[in-house]
Amino acid sequence: MGRAANLFWLLVLFAPSLAGALSSDREQPIHIRAASVEINEKTGVSVYTGDVNVTQGSMELTAEELIVHYRNGEVSRMESKGQPATFRQQPDGALHEVRGEALRIEYDADAEKAYLVGQGHLWRGNDEFLGERIVFDTLENTVHATSGDDDRVHAVIQPRKDTENDSP
């Protein structure tokens, strides 16, 4: 169970780390479904393949393949691949969830950054960011999107409503 617990502290990438997930998510059981799993303790790599679905509380992750890298018994990096790979989670104190999709989603646990590579699309509430590569810094809560050679990034930022003026 130690490996599964370590795996999910990072799977919470697309969760608490990524957006300050619901604090209750960490207390929920982790469910991983895949057609197969191969764990190689010698190399420190676990590979889940075939319609991978991960849930923990409000966090959901889907991919065709999920690769988890361990260093010193701890998850150091995760990479999910799909057509597209997706994640979603409800952040603590937020009205809207955070969602993302890309052909590849990577998470660097040391830097606490998520990388959406290949047709990246990130939603934070009603705001959205599209680009060939999107970096979401979970510590600084920043988004950096870059375009491909023949394209441009696209950001949609919704106006913020003044809640004081909306009151009757």
From TrEMBL:
Protein name, UniProt field: Lipopolysaccharide export system protein LptA
Q: Where in the cell is it found?
A: Periplasm
User: Per the UniProt entry, what are the Gene Ontology biological process annotations, in alphabetical order?
Assistant: Gram-negative-bacterium-type cell outer membrane assembly; lipopolysaccharide transport
Family assignment from sequence similarity = Belongs to the LptA family.
Position of the signal peptide: 1-21
One GO cellular-component annotation of the UniProt record comes to: cell outer membrane
Q: How does it assemble?
A: Component of the lipopolysaccharide transport and assembly complex.
Q: What is the lineage of its organism?
A: Bacteria, Pseudomonadati, Pseudomonadota, Gammaproteobacteria, Thiohalomonadales
Source superkingdom: Bacteria
Q: What does this protein do?
A: Involved in the assembly of lipopolysaccharide (LPS). Required for the translocation of LPS from the inner membrane to the outer membrane. May form a bridge between the inner membrane and the outer membrane, via interactions with LptC and LptD, thereby facilitating LPS transfer across the periplasm.
> What InterPro entries does its record include?
LPS_export_LptA, LptA, OstA-like_N
Q: Which UniProt keywords apply?
A: Periplasm, Signal, Transport
Which GO molecular function terms does the record list? glycolipid transfer activity; lipopolysaccharide binding
Q: Give the matching Pfam families.
A: LptD_N
Where is the Organic solvent tolerance-like N-terminal domain positioned along the sequence? 31-140
